[in-house]
């Protein structure tokens, strides 16, 4: 049984509140420290939750509330220019669920508050000092906080990662900017169908919105990355013109861009992935979620893996006799899984921005690839059927 009783959680996005709730269930008091001056529920676009992510939310009592506001996706289709290819899926698996990050964050935040988790805002971490009996975090406003352990759930630009290892790699730009919009155009597909479309100039995806219209996301190739703040400073009218130019030769990309209201256009800035991080923990500090592992959005697993890790770190701190043993067990349970999923997503990501030759061959090669190489039980089964056994002792 661990002697850990208190924790500082840095980051109040998705992984932070789940970590704090899971820690409370493990008998550990946790406070979430968020750099923003208030809740971050207005940031980001739509994200996917795989069945394994929803299953992990069950351990903090948030699965039903999240499923109630999410759109279930039962079928996936690939569209290569004008050629439609149905993708094989898992038999009898729960659906993928798409949910706006703001709505997901609101549910997790409110659930954590109801569970008694304190949130401290305007707390930008600048340093941490470890002692024999704990760790003291220092924040930009001059305040400090002390606890037995410090858990970094502070995203791809993690400060905690640099404190653990100053030589740690930073996020890697994928070469694409992310966009989202809601179009009035109604696509001719069954509800609950997500289409991954390879246009002549750029990749996009879409599905029917339950309230009407079509929700769609775009990945536009761009040499130079743009931060979320930089992307928001560009007028939405300008981004919409860019989208209409990029997808003007595609069907239904052209109709989606032409019928999207400017108010619905959102840019999330540069899309990043995390290369393998050599050190997930040091002393009394550890990383969870995107700070340690952020696969490409092509994986459909980023949020789900972050939620899984949040639950697993609490389980390890509950069951192992000391902090180093708990963090070592946590990394042992997580690293191979997340890096395997990240590697699969990286291969998919390369297809989103193909060169001229690849674009020419894609309509021929993709159907063949689907018929010969797509084996859902082998590739997706271990990812989506994964369930954490909370009651079992972590080892």
Automatic annotation (TrEMBL):
Sequence ranges assigned to domain FAD-binding in this UniProt record: 7-319
Keyword Oxidoreductase among record annotations: yes
Keywords per UniProt: Monooxygenase, Oxidoreductase
Pfam families attached to this UniProt entry: FAD_binding_3
GO MF annotations, alphabetized: monooxygenase activity
Entries under InterPro entries matching the protein: FAD-bd, FAD-dep_Monooxygenase_BioMet, FAD/NAD-bd_sf
Gene3D superfamilies in the record: FAD/NAD(P)-binding domain
Name the record gives this protein: FAD-dependent monooxygenase
